[in-house]
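Appendix B.2, paired examples.
Example (i):
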Amino acid sequence: MSRLANVLVASADTARQGVLVDILAENQCSALGCDTADELMSLARSTHPDLILIDMADPSMDGLAVARNLRAEGRRPDSPMPAAPIMVIASQRRADLYEDALAMGVEDVLVDPLDDAELMCRIWPLLRLSTIATEVEGRIRAATALGAAVPPDGDDGSDLPGSVLVLRDTAVTQESQVPLPYGGGFTFVSAVSNRDAERLLSKQAFDAVVLVAVDGDGAERMLAFCELLRSKPNLYDLPVILIAPKAAITDRSDPYWRGVTRLVLAPAPHQEIEYGLSGLTARKRRRWSLRRALDRIRVPDLCDPVTKLYGEPFLRANLGILVEDARTWHRRLSL
């Protein structure tokens, strides 16, 4: 069976670690477990994972401190530490959990009780981003080996404030029911109806959409609206956060299959919503930055003059790098 990604799983609870490894294996990921922070750091250097999953259910594993150390070492020149996405699983929802995760560069936070299907729905986007980043890195190495100069990327707008569209179901009557992080670097625009939300989305570029429901019927209406958004080509990768009570969601993976990017169970601290908005908008900008990088690498020196596609020398160089990395990092390679 082809394995889609290499995932490093850290948990001081060996039984829980085994459960996480099994979930990943069932979903065609190659998972390697460890039970101490030191072992995690060592394996991250030597195995070059596509994703690092840290379970903080056992207090002896301080996942956020480990994440900080991973990021700090990864910033050093010539460090073997990969810039792999980091996901942590925490035992409790706390405001400071999301504040610290945002500050330490953790891409996603899940809170117990764990839902297996939701876990994978949150993992897949991170793996896709990691795979694209690895591909870009390999192509740049191939281009450099052939003496081609790759133009630098321009400003990705990461310092600009995010613009967020908010659509509340008609049953939402009190602002206090939805503690959105007003301020927090975001500009919020409220839509009064689905039709108004469609109109605003057609006129303005938003960085994210927040949908709010207070019951099951409202959640269903918001999910139907999300499906409508995903049918529009220009909105297919727009981050969508659904805020709904736990009782309104019977299957926590269903919102993701219907186009939601992040499910937040109400009531939730506003820090959790701010963390979701900050992380998802940064992820979207990162995706577009990588896509621009793929275009920049296709310089005339590397391309066939007639087809404008990569020529044989580049394809051979890139294949050599893919094979070399597959051998070095024990990756399964399929083309």
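Example (ii):
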Amino acid sequence: MKHIAGLLSALFGAGLAVLAITLASKPSNQPLRFDPLDALSTYVFSFSWVGGALGMVLGAALLLGYLALWYAAGVRIFKLARSQER
């Protein structure tokens, strides 16, 4: 069950990342919309444009690290909630 809580937390973090990337990359006269493919392509393009192949590796590592932090936070929250029940 704690793994499910961690995965849900990581999905929430991914959604926040998509919205943050979309908000940062779109002009102010366009409405904010949830488009994960466009946001991730913008994210990958920006890292590959700046650093080439090394930028893509660093961008992927940064994204995985970000999602791992959300996963760990979800597992930690689940453990704290479980200990409060007992």
